[in-house]
Amino acid sequence: MEKYIILLPLYNDWDSLTILFEKINLVIKNLTKPVEVYIINDNSTKGPPNFKNFSNIKKINILNLKTNLGSQKAISIGLKYLIQKKQEMIITILDSDGEDDVSQIPLMILEAERNKERVVVSIRSKRQESFIFKTFYLLHKIITFIFTLKWISFGNYSSFHSDQLKNILSNDCSWLAISSCIARNCRIKKVEAERKKRIVGESKISIFNLIIHSLRVNTVFISRGLILSSVYLSLSFILIFLSGFKYFTLLAATVVIYNILIFLIFILNKRKEYYGSLDFIKNFKNIY
Question: Where do the domains of the chain lie, and which CATH numbers do they carry?
Answer without folding.
Answer: 3-135+150-200+275-286 (3.90.550.10)
